[in-house]
Amino acid sequence: MRGVTHDDAPLLADLMPWSVAPPRLGRGWPAAPDAASLKARWDALVKAEGPDRETLFEPSRSRTLHTAVGQLPGRADSGTEKLVRASGPCPEPVRVLLAPFDEQWLIPDQRLIDAARPELWRVADERQAFLVEAPEALLVTSLLPLLRPGRVRPLFRRPGGREPNLAPGLLEHLGARLGGTPAPLDVLAWITATARPDLTVPLTGDADEWERGIELGHRMLWLMRRDGERPKLPGGRRPYVRAPLPSRPLTLRYDRDEEALLLDEGRVSPVPPEAWDFEVGGVRVLEQWFTARVTDAEPGTLAAIRPTVWPQTWTSELLELITVLALLAELRPLEELTLPDPITTAELAEAGVLPVPATARRPASVLDGPEEGPEGQLALL
């Protein structure tokens, strides 16, 4: 058995060569933990006139009320007239990943977003999985990710699960070494389970070790993507609301002895210490999630339009998040792995898999239907 070192393990950037910078909102109010607030914010914007509308919008160098941009791909309900003249209902909010493990809502309108990254929207569908280089961690989500500053690597370059975003020839080479060609999602599972902090990914030609790795990776993917059946803690240790949450909690504390999460006088337990201690980039996920829902915005801004009481849906999301974090904490991969029969960068180069062609690092030409450009013009791509 020979260990894979950081020098001979391939780079994630070579295994999944196409990457995109995450969307940049430029203003906070088009995103929120609840969809109803977004619709109310939009209504307040389009009802305002003149300087009031401009102040509410919070213009930037990239977006003003007079900026002309097209529709986001796949979002026919968003307008293309300049916002200075905009009226009508709010485009239907969509679910996004705004922070690590924090699913929120976004108004999908390119006029509101400084850098929307249309190339990501073109490939976002029910088959897609986005690998996100979060600080000191890799996250995977089925939702459009808005986390900054890391790169976003879609698993597929085209909608419908077509054309994997993998080094050309990688699947075939792995198949020859493992005795069976893995599916693209298997490779993503392996990467999720084994990627190191320096974003190298040790590979193995040992079929048994590969199966163990992708089993761990698929479990991690299921928890992070939250697809299908809801996760549960073993032994019936399901977190419950033991004391009612206040209508508007302001503080969050953790009682380690009692394994209880305290939202003012509200109480949720059991909350395993692993869930409370779960961090991404040195920030506790539960604290960041809570803060995003209780921190007051500046009065008079659109962001100040928010629920006046704590919605029941947030409690349900909190209970599920506790479960996900506790289960993921048990699955966190080792930073150092010793793998039998390593597949090295040199081997991939000899097989012609590396270096990847420049075209693999650029987005595919994707236009499954017409896209409306600024002021209703047809966009030609």
Automatic annotation (TrEMBL):
Occurrences of domain Type ISP restriction-modification enzyme LLaBIII C-terminal specificity (ranges): 14-321
Pfam families named among the record's database cross-references: Type_ISP_C
InterPro entries assigned to the protein according to its UniProt record, in alphabetical order: Type_ISP_LLaBIII_C
Region (Disordered): 362-381
Protein name (database record): Type ISP restriction/modification enzyme
